[in-house]
Amino acid sequence: xxxxxxxxxxxxxxxxxxxxxxxxxxxxxxxxxANSSQSxxxxxxxxxxxxxxxxxxxxxxxxxxxxxxxxxxxxNIFKEADPRFPGIRFNGVRCKFSIISMNxxxxxxxDGRFGKDKKAKAVAAEYFRKKQLTSAMLSxxxxxxxxxxxxxxxxxxxxxxx
Length: 162
Description:
two-stranded antiparallel ribbon; two-stranded parallel sheet
């Protein structure tokens, strides 16, 4: 999966003149797969290099920062008012779902600290759970002994198109 992801990235940016990547390693990417002696980070870096990219690894030390700190950092980066931070641009066509996700993510505030609002995620999970039940009931109804239709349009119920 890592190789496919990196290869897709490399194909997308194959005509990009700047071929340097600052690869920020975190503790999650240092885990190893059962079928490889390399960590996820090591696999990704090696694959980038084999595709002709110059990789500058940067190790994130310690634990991830609290959600509050990440929220404030991202807000400051998006303002583009501080020259210490890079400019950020999103491709509105290729990154449509990332933009939608960021715009729809709710934030809570408790004791002056920001955090993720996990309630929306629970509501979405319940919505899809109900849709799966509806799908299962429809499938059962249509797959009786005298029926030739099995699982009619269940994917439409499970995954509404945008």
